[in-house]
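Form 7-S
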Amino acid sequence: DSVNLYHKAYGLSEEQDYTPGKSNGYYFDPQHKMRVLIRLLREQWRFGGCGIQINELRKKKVLVRNLFPLHNHTYLKVKGLHDWASLRAMASINPLRMNKENIMCYFGEEVGLYFIWIKEFCLVLIPLGIAGLVCGVGGSIDHRAIFNGAFAFCCVSWACYWNVHWGRIETEFALENCQEEQLDQEPLRDEFECKDVVPVEYKDIYDLTFNVPLSLQVQSDGSMVDLYYPNIRRQLVRFLIGYPVVLILTAAMIAALIAITWWRFEHTDSSVISYVSSILTVMTSVIFGVLFEKIVEFLNSLENNRTDTEEDHERIKKSFLFYFFSNYFALFILALYPLEGAQYERLKQLQSQMIIICIVKPMVQNLQELMMPYFKSQLRTRTDAKGSMVGGIMSFLKCESYADVLREGAYDPEEPGTALWLEAQMEPCTGTSSDYLEITLQFGYMAMFGATFPFAAPAAVLYNFLELRIDAMKFTYHIQRPIAAPAASIGPWSRIFVMLTMCAVVTNSYLVIMLSPILEKFNVPEPDSRERQYPVSYTHLRAHETPEHLVCRLLLEKKKHLH
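Output:
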């Protein structure tokens, strides 16, 4: 009966009219309906809600396994989201096509803003990909230093333009969808604990003598109170405990990366060790990343943040402080490590590291992001049907028929209730932070170190086109439908992009002036020319030049620099 009631309430039929502007008997769009229901469930009973602490029950695994809205496949089909979430769209004339209104209406503004963001990022990245392809091909033929220097300028210009471009789009989005008002009405976290209940008079608000916080609540009798928690206490915990622990963990990871880098430069003549050390660098980052996620969750619980948005923003700040060093530190060391001999060797090491980061690692991430939710859902379903984890694993390895496994577990594939149960076995949606992180790290690689490997830009274009399609497929088919959440901006990620752009100006200047032989191409002498060590590429034999001519040419060049 509950399944039939759900079908009637949500209108899962082909005949239902989903034309925009028609409410179909309801006063709210899907995303607004979700927020009203969640607020009614989570709000305390004295403030008009049911007082069910869903998140706490879910973490403690008591009564509630998870809470999520069900997918409406009829809506997806009518609105064209089925085709949008298909990999076949990659082969269409416009692989970036999307209807942002339909996406926001179905997934909520937070997920909708993410897809708007990644689409705009792909569009802005296309010119840089073309420039990288031209500079990469031109540099492989001749004058590599000149082409790499030109591409460094392109990377910095592209990064600056992206920050301005996205800031304008983000402002238009917030104004168009009235997201600031939605965020002001966000419910408090179930874990939030107030220290005091402060009465608030209406007159104080009208006279603007009271700054309306997110913790303002209306009681059943109409009076208002502020669930007060001292902000100074939250700040002390954040800066005296949270960030120092993050810095200690980051220092431990940096020590491991330095050891790997030392081993790499002790064997500079071995290309095998060079690539093995690159792989070890990635593995070190992954291992510390898993440990870091557990620690950050505990540190945030000590801060007692008021809303889920505040919690996510603090997690992003701490996470990126760690991921910045874990992902970029190896490249910084390769550029700055004291190395005897030619500086050209540094560029070779940086290039090999960029190949691993920009080509191999994204391929592995895409496969993992596409396949892991499916495998976890299959294993969870088969485990429940078989009654044990071992039985579920053996069923998966034997490739037993999905329908037969369900019937063995007394689940009829034709029953509507079975479809709902299968959806409950899907991987829960954990938000968009991990998706933002992938592209933000890629932005940093391209902006700061793209000049060492111009072909990384066209590879990034292809990766992002595929990433958009994989994320669309993941949110539509492979994970549970996210609860609609408001979003006026991408949060701390905008400031992170600005910080990476500032770093890009410094790193590209260093790569062009200090490491690249571009100055010699233009015959520009350096201030410390008496102590100059010539790059390996400078001592290569020129066309039709004998070793004797090489020695004479170097002696003449040295004499010219000394004078």
